[in-house]
Amino acid sequence: xxxxxxxxxxxxxVESLVSEFLKVPxxxxxxxxxxxxxxxxxxxxxxxxxxxxxxxxxxxxxxVVNKTIVLARQDVRxxxxxxxxxxxxxxxxxxxxxxxxxxxxxxxxxxxAFMEDLLKVPEYLFFDLLNKDVSVDKWVNDKYGFKFKxxxxxxITNRVNxxxxxxxxxxxxxxxxxxxxxxxxxxxxxRLVLTRENxxxxxxxxxxxxxxxxxxxxVLCMTKMIFDTFQSSNGLxxxxxxxxxxxGKMDNLARKFMQSLESLDKNNYxx
Length: 271
Prior knowledge:
Elements: H1 9-21, H2 27-31, H3 34-78, H4 94-118, H5 121-126, H6 136-144, H7 155-170, H8 196-234, H9 241-267
Helix pairs in contact: 3-4, 3-8, 4-7, 4-8, 8-9
């Protein structure tokens, strides 16, 4: 009887990313360039980093902490001094809550690193083709009101950022305002209590968010590149109908990707 072949998790990540990126016009051409390969390697590292971190926390750290809690409770019950101890007043579970809260700090730092690398995409792929007088970030913000680095724009990035800030600056108490949806009525006198399922879900949502956000950034860069090319080619700032039609297609595609990001955030996250 033949053994069932184990699925390679990294292969699944790569294949999933490639499948998504092929939706970007001319992405295959970009991928074949040296800079394109650097960008793809950077993206793969950041995506696999989240996947590995999720598995480390959920499958390694948390089970060990749970086992430690069980042993600590057993030690208290078997202690010769147990008559002086009130087991119900000992917050055994707080150790687990601490581990998960701190895991969110690490998760947000990974999200920050991802965003920093993402801002290098214009350099990797379009350095010689873009008008340097106006950065891609500023052009996109002026034209679409879309900031690449805006934690509060999407629920999942806002949630991870908010939890991290509460842990770092408020000792785990939900005191930072404004509060994301789902935390408005959490008691401010109690530290945040988050579960392994919460953490796994948030990592999985980031893994859905990353590829689509990267696609959006690439398409916005391409839209600016086309805009810059047409503007410089005629020197008048006036486009002929064919140019307008081509730019219009890219503009519509950029808006479609941005709308997909909004839909992903609203439709795939339950709080």
